[in-house]
Each structure stands twice: as structure tokens, then as C-alpha cells.
Amino acid sequence: MDNAAPRTLTAVDIQSVIPHRYPILMVDKAVITEPGKKITGFKSVAANEPVFQGHFPGRPILPGVLIVEAMAQTACILFFSRPGMGGKLAFFMGIDKVKFRKPVVPGDQLEMRLEVLRDGRVGKCRGESFVNNEMVTEAEFIFAIVDKEEAKPAP
Predict the structure, then answer these.
(1) Does residue 128 lie in a domain region?
(2) Which of 38, 55, 82, 102 is catalytic?
(3) pLDDT at 84 over 90
């Protein structure tokens, strides 16, 4: 059993671990609470994010698909922060048991808690997202981890 102290990754650290960049990078900070098993990610939802121009004028709500993306990126941070995982990408294979319980709006801080259910080239995670300790979203993710070279489009 690994009793390592929690490890905090800043926005700069996160960009060294996963390939996502603005405007799709959805995690500002992450804390690996149990290496290889559990992570908590954070996203501060800003009023000036481009998505709010159209979703919805006068009643801005962070789209559920972006919450799910933020949760998946948090899982990627956990997997790709491990030694030997450089040069890898993760692709969704399935998203199951998704439930949206409350809207997420500008000014909220989204806290995403992810746990590994299955490790390997095909992995599975369960996640829950919270705002002010109230659950807003939950989901399970199945994904494939591939080498970047395998992911290149055919010429």
C-alpha cells in the first residue's frame, strides 16, 4: 500500500502532463490524493469563457459535456503523471451512468473527484463533481491509452 503524501499539480504542471491547451484545458489545479488511484481536480468557472456567449445568453450555464470533459482530463492527469507515461494520449471509449444534478454557473469552483476502477491500456474511472460540497455531476469513463504515434491520422 502506498502512503505517499498528496501531490499538488499547478496549471503549469498540468500542461506538462496532458496535451490540452486553451480553450479546451478544463483543469486549473489537481491534487493526487492516492497515487495511481485517486485525484481531485479543480476548475474555476469564469464568466468570460467563450461558451457562455451562446449557452445561454442571460442565463449562463456550463454545458454538461464540458463538465464531463473536465472530469476526464482530471483522470488523464492522474494516469499521465506516473513515470513512463510520457508520449501517451487517452481516447474516450465510453461514458456511462452520467447524471447531472445541478447547473454549474460562472463564479463556481468545480471540484472533481476521480477514482480508478480499472488500470491498463483500457482503463475505467468513476468520477463525481461538486460545487460547494453539493454533487453536480457523476459519471464513469472507459478510455484507451495509446502512444501518440499510434494516434496520428493517416496521410
Answers:
(1) yes
(2) 55
(3) no
pLDDT (average), residues 97-116: 98
Task: Name residue, grid cell 469563457.
Answer: 49
Quote the number of domains for the chain.
Answer: 1
Range of the domain at 47: 7-151
Residue 2 lies in a domain: no
Residue 42 falls inside a structural domain: yes
Closest among 151, 153, 93, 154 to 120, alpha carbons compared: 93
pLDDT-derived band at 152, boundaries 50, 70, 90: confident
Band of residue 1 on the pLDDT scale cut at 50, 70, 90: very low
Does the annotation count 20 as an active-site position?
Answer: no
Comparing C-alpha atoms, which of 141, 82, 84 is closest to residue 112?
Answer: 141
